[in-house]
Write a structure and sequence with these properties.
Layout lengths: L2 E5 L4 H10 L4 E6 L10 E5 L5 H7 L5 E3 L1
Amino acid sequence: MANIAIAGANGFVGTHLIPTLSKKHHIRALGRSLKKSTDSQLEWKQTELFSSSSTIEALKDIDVAIY
């Protein structure tokens, strides 16, 4: 099981990747707005990708990042 970050998780591609990938992997969904999830495989993290400190923090312990 990999830890996967998906940037723009609220968008078209992210909303289609999350259900598939979360079946076998832990997903950290990155977006400008914070959402909550009851799925133990899905963690939402409010992230400003134009901020290096915010992005570095969001990618801690991540194996694969999808942008």
